Amino acid sequence: MEARGPVQGAQVVGRVARLLRLVGAKSSGAPTARLVRESGLTRPTVHRLLSSLAAEGLLDQDPRTGNWVLGTEMFVLGSAAAARFPFEDLARPSLRRLAEQSGESAFYSVRRGAETVCLLREEGSFPVRSFVLREGVRFPLGVASAGTAILAFLPDEEGDGFLDRWEEHAGDFAAGHTEQTVRRQLEETRLRGYSVNPGLVLEGSWGMGAAVFDPHGSPVAAVSLTGIEPRFRPERQEFLGRLLMEEAHRISTRLERGTG
């Protein structure tokens, strides 16, 4: 029993983390049925965990929709954590410049293991926008423009580890992002210095991204732009790519200097 205790405890933590991520994936939250389906847990287990999280203030249930949404304690914890991760100071100026100069929506995403997580967004002036990406959205590395920009510049051995099990890694995105397509995109990204996502996540919604590097030369984040297809035609891509690489370089330089 003593040997099993830590394993069981770790399992509970993993399940709780999975549910919190699923709830936080959309601002409108998620219904219980979807949480059961996407978590792979039984309905009684999901209900028990959701009720416990709600009792601690980490989740609430929207009285209008019945969806589970993040609670006030999550905001308190996030505010405390923000002091350790001053992404606003680090990346917000770059996002504002990108949005102002391009007219598109600009984003800052960081790598977390096998995923990218969008942390910041700055809306552009162009009235028609793509809503594929927003704060809290996660994609597997190699999916969408930020994930492609990061995966392209990982060491070969690490990158191949994802590509060699691509369908498992990409999950539901594997159909639109075949291994052959992704390998081609990665090679093009290395040649250009920036990635282009031609509507692979959602038809008509395009994106471009450039990797941000830490002081050791590892890609740890990316800046990206998203919008509708006519705004990302070939004659404009070079201009947008240059903007992205300039701002990615600025952020990388701040990381190297230890500022932000």
Automatic annotation (TrEMBL):
Record's protein name: IclR family transcriptional regulator
Residues of the HTH iclR-type domain: 10-72
Keywords per UniProt: DNA-binding, Transcription, Transcription regulation
Domain IclR-ED: 73-257
DNA-binding listed as a keyword: yes
PROSITE patterns: HTH_ICLR (PS51077), ICLR_ED (PS51078)
InterPro entries, alphabetized: GAF-like_dom_sf, HTH_MetabolicPath_Reg, Tscrpt_reg_IclR_C, Tscrpt_reg_IclR_N, WH-like_DNA-bd_sf, WH_DNA-bd_sf
A Pfam entry, by short name: HTH_IclR
SUPFAM superfamilies: GAF domain-like, Winged helix' DNA-binding domain
